[in-house]
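Hi R.,

Here's the chain you asked about this morning:
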Amino acid sequence: MSQQTPSDPAGTTHQFENFVAKAQQQPEKKVSGGNVGLVVGVAAVAVVAVVLVVALVTMV
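And here is the predicted structure, written out as tokens:
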């Protein structure tokens, strides 16, 4: 029962063990300030929302 099917699309246990071993050897790269685009995008949306609210209030 220890025979593995090489045509298994999920791979074999040996392939998975190799994957885990490689993942443990390569620590994740953490870049500070990596979310600058997200912050700029949220700020832009906030500015547009404020402009729309001011425009609607002044029209009334």
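One quick note: The mean pLDDT is 81.

Cheers,
M.
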